[in-house]
Structure formats: structure tokens, C-alpha cells
């Protein structure tokens, strides 16, 4: 059975939900009984797991950290404390973002690159956060009593399918597979989108961003979309933007005093990093050769950083170092991302002492920068200094025990030391943090066979019980994690 058309139909219905209201809804009403918080969490967990399996999540700690920091700044301003939000950057030039019940939000690199200002990116995130905090899917289910509720697993797969769609294919699939019922779902979209606009603007203002960025960005996207209808603007297909919506948001913005929000250096650097990773080394080099020679940029440090990163990706290490020096000159106050790039250039050159010194110096100024912590550990792994790598990783885990990248590095170091039990225990935690309990359980079974003292065996048995309970709960709701993934 081909599930793709069904999935696309379900997702288009899910992601384009909305409701017009002058006041916030009463979220304690019966609609939440159809999709209570624990059900939303299961949808979010399965979606996150399938996202990671798909290979479409951008595995870049600096982009991911920034997106989550920006997202949680907005979540805090929305006064939402019941949902554990997770923000995923997706490596795709398509202009898109989407939200899932339970707080999973995906943002394509194409949208990050398109944003001219940080407030524009924040506006899209605030809009998606509002879809979650206003429980639009639960309210849609309530309004469609008797129509039947899709399984959680099908819903999660639907979300993924439509997020990958391009052009008119998702909506053609909707029409073909869901018919009248799907059209009834889509009929709600304008009202729900207007509410997400309104609540999102309240969040933007509370977080200190420029609320005018929302109508400005949507209007610019709409104009580009009309001129270049090549399927790139997936956001406008799953979140229909109308002149009425733009006018409404402009009118709300006009009621507030004007406040300009300067772009953070974090945003400016991350946007260029996303651009390089999206374009690839050669296309990025052509881009920066043009912008830097003609001085077509808003911030020189960010442009030189992007150029240096593209040169590193192309293997031109000394040229990358020279461009990084120009970025540092343009930004004498420094930045964690500049420090990390310097360390990674020296690491790529196998200049390990220089790389280690740069990472240590960077951590002295930016102790919470994940990329710098990874870099310092990676220098030791590259040099075969396994014990030091373990020491540094365990110190970092003392502050961030739920960081899968740290557990993966710990497993690598223990494996090189032929310490089978600790290596597989670390790998088990890596998989558990990626929502792969069956793979984690397999690793713990190997660790148990490797043996250990009474306390180690007791800890393994306790963790295995937790994972079995998690698997049983997922199976009960038709959301089993499926086959375990291969070891990294």
C-alpha cells in the first residue's frame, strides 16, 4: 500500500490549521480530551525519531544550538511551560517551516538564508510556536467529531511526508486521497493561520523583537513566490498567506510603538554557515567571491566567516585561515563561532597543538560553546589520546548529560581502549537520546555480556528495564521504534 498520498493529505490538514478569534481560546475545554498532552508528546517523539532516520536533519551543532536558543527565547516569552519544544534545522533550500503537536518544529536552511533580519526568522518560529501552544490540531479533532481520529504513527509519518513535498504535489495528493473531509480541514486554515499570526506577534513583542517583521517577511515571500513559482516556497503552500492576513498583521503592528531590533552576531554568522552548508563548497565560493569583491553585504565579519568556511570545506586551508583573519579583524570583540572555525582549520591541517590551544582559548572566553567543547575532545581523539578524551567528555557530560554527540565521542574513546562494556553503555545512551530505545537496548545487552562489577551490572539492568518499559508503551500505541539503526 502506498502511504505517501494519505500521509501528504493528513499532513497538509495538520499543518495548515487555524482559528479566528478576538481572544485566546479556552484551552481547558473538551478539545484537549481528544489529543491530551501525553498523546501530543508521543506524536512529537515519533516525528523526531523519523526525522533523524530520514537523514534530512542538519547535523551541525552551531546551527542547531542557535535555532534552539532562539526558539526557547520565544517559547519563554509565550509563557508556555507545558511543552518540551525541539527545533530541528533541515538541510534543504526549500523555504519552509512546520510544527507538530507536542512541540517539534522543523526549519529549512532555505528559510534561514532567506531571512534578511533576525526578527524575520523569529517571526516564523513564533508563528509555528503559536500553532503548538494554541493546540490547533486538538481543536480541529474536536470540530470534526465523528470523522475518526488518525493513528499517532500515521500522523507523524504524514507530517514528514508533506514537509518533504515540493510544488503542487502535496495538495494534489490531498485532493486525490482525502476528498471532502480533507477540504473541510483546509477550510479552517485561514482562521487558524490568522490566530497563529496574532499570537505569534504577541510572542515576538514579548521577546523584544520587531513585530513588523512578520507582515514584512510574509509579504516579501509572497511577492517572490508570485515571480518564481518553482516549488521553492513550500511554506506558502502549507501556510497560505493572503493579502487580508498581511493587512491584519500590519494593522496590529501599527498600533505598537516602533522599536528596531538589531541583528545578533549569532544570527549573522549562523545564516552564512547555513548558506555554505546548503550551497556546497564550490557554489559558496562563487557566491562569496562576488559579495566580498563588490562589498555587497550588510556585515563584513559574517561574509568573511562564510568565505573562510567555504574554503575549509573545499580543502583550501591556508586561504581559509587568511579569510578567518579578515573576519576577526572586522569583529575584534571575537565570537565563539570564529574561535571554533580557527580550531577546526588547524585540526584539518593536523596542527594539533595549535588546534588544541585555539579550542582551549575559545573555551576560556565562551565556556558554554558546544562546538568548542567538541573541538577540544576531537583533537585528543585524532591524536589517539583516548584517556584525555574520556576525561574531557565526562567533564562536559557533567553539565550536559543529554548531549548525544558527547556520548558518541565517549563510546569512540572507550572502543579504542578495548573497554567493551563502557563503550557499549555510552553508545546505548547515544541511541536512547535519539529516541531509538530498541538500538539502545541492543547495546546494553552487549555491555552486559562484557561483564563488570556489581554496581555496573545493576546500572545496566536498571537502564534496560527503563528502555523495555518505553518500548512497551510505544508498542501499545502503535508507535514502535522499528528496527534499530546501525552503530555510528
List the helices and strands and how they pair.
Layout: H1 4-15, H2 31-34, H3 37-54, H4 61-77, E1 86-90, E2 97-100, E3 104-108, H5 109-114, H6 118-133, H7 136-143, H8 152-164, H9 169-187, H10 189-207, H11 213-227, H12 234-238, H13 243-254, H14 265-279, H15 281-293, H16 300-313, H17 317-330, H18 336-348, H19 352-365, H20 370-383, H21 386-399, H22 404-416, H23 420-433, H24 437-450, H25 454-476
Parallel strand pairs: 1-3
Antiparallel strand pairs: 2-3
Helix pairs in contact: 1-8, 1-9, 3-8, 4-6, 4-10, 6-10, 6-11, 10-13, 11-13, 14-15, 14-16, 15-16, 16-17, 16-18, 17-18, 18-19, 18-20, 19-20, 20-21, 20-22, 21-22, 22-23, 23-24, 24-25
Q: From the alpha-carbon coordinates, what is the Rg to the nearest angstrom?
A: 24 Å
Q: Provide mean pLDDT, rounded.
A: 82
Look at the helices and sheets and give the structural class.
Answer: mainly alpha
Number of helix segments? 25
For the largest sheet, list the strands in their spatial order. 1-3-2
The main sheet comes to: 3 strands, mixed
Task: Tell me what you see in this structure.
The protein is an all-alpha fold. The protein has 25 helices and three strands. It has a three-stranded mixed β-sheet with strand order 1-3-2, with helices on both faces. A hairpin with a 3-residue loop joins strand 2 (97-100) and strand 3. Helix 14 crosses helix 15. The longest helix has 23 residues, at 454-476. The chain is flat and about 70 Å long. Mean pLDDT is 82; it is low at 1-30, 146-150, 165-188 and 482-488.
